[in-house]
Amino acid sequence: MLSSRPVIFILGLLLFALGGIGWVVLKQSDTGKKVVVTQDRNTQLLAALRALPSAVAQAQQSAPLEDSVARTARAYDSLERSMTLPPGTLAKELPAFAEDLLRRPDTSELDKAAALFATKQYAQSEAAALRAKDQALAADGQPVKDAISALTLAGQSATEQIQNKRALEHYRAASALTSEERDVLEWAGIQNKIGHLHYLDRQYGAQATLM
Question: How confident is the model at residue 8 (pLDDT cuts 50, 70, 90)?
Fold first, then answer.
C-alpha cells in the first residue's frame, strides 16, 4: 500500500504538468489572436492605402488652396471615421506600412504607386501608376478598371505636384476608358475630377493676379 507522501507528490507533479500544458495552450491562443489582429490591421491599412488618393482629392475639392499637410490630415481623418479606426492610426501606421510594401518584391505596381503616394513621393507615384496602367492594358482580358484606377492615381499624383496640365491628360485618358452606360458613377467621378482641375486653374490664376 502506497504511503500518503508519494501519492501527494505524484498528484503535485500531475497538477504542475497540467498547469504547464494549460499555460502553453493559453500562450498559443494569445499568439493566434495576435496573428489575427495583425492580419486584420494589415488588411485595413492596405484598404486605407488604396483609398488615400481619392480621399486626398475629396479633401482638396472642399478646400482647394489648403496645403498638402492639412489636406492629408483631413483625408486620414475621413478614412479613419469610415473604417472605424482610432484617431491618429493612419498618421502613425500608414507610412511605415507603405514603406514595407515598397520593400516587398511581390507588391503589385499599382500598390507600389499607392505606397509612393502615401509617402509623398508624388513623381515616383505618377510614374509607377503609368506603368501599372500599361500592365493592365497589356494583360489578358485587359482589366480596364485597373487601368482607370492607375490613371486616376497618376492624375492625383500630378495634381499634388501642381502639374495640372499633366493631371488633366491622365484624367482624360481615364475618361476615354469609362462608359456612362457601363458604370455611371465611375464615369461621373472622372468627369468631376476633370471639372475640378479646371476650377483649380482658375483659382491659381486668380491668386496670381492678386499677388
Answer: low
By the 10 Å C-beta count (0-12 exposed, 13-18 middle, 19+ buried), 83 is classed as middle
Distance CA 12, CA 4 (A): 12
Question: What pLDDT is stored for residue 70 in this prediction?
Answer: 92
Note the pLDDT tens digit of each residue in 130-143.
Answer: 999 999 999 877 77
- In whole angstroms, what is the distance from residue 52 CA to residue 97 CA? 13
CB 47 within 8 A of CB 83: yes
Cell numbers for 117, please give them. Answer: 503616394
Give one DSSP letter per residue of 12-23, joined into a string.
HHHHHHHHHHHH
Are 140 and 118 within 8 A, CB to CB? Answer: no
Q: Model's pTM, two decimal places? A: 0.76
Instruction: Say which residues have a Cβ less than 8 Å from residue 197's Cβ, sequence separation at least 6.
Output: 159, 164, 167, 168, 171
> How many angstroms separate the CA atoms of 81 and 77, rounded?
6
User: Mutual orientation of helices 89-103 and 68-82 as an angle, nearest 10°?
Assistant: 100
Q: Give the DSSP per-residue string, 57-87.
A: HHHHHHSTT--HHHHHHHHHHHHHHHTTPPT
φ, ψ for residue 29 (rounded to 5)?
A: -65, -45
Per-residue pLDDT at 65: 79
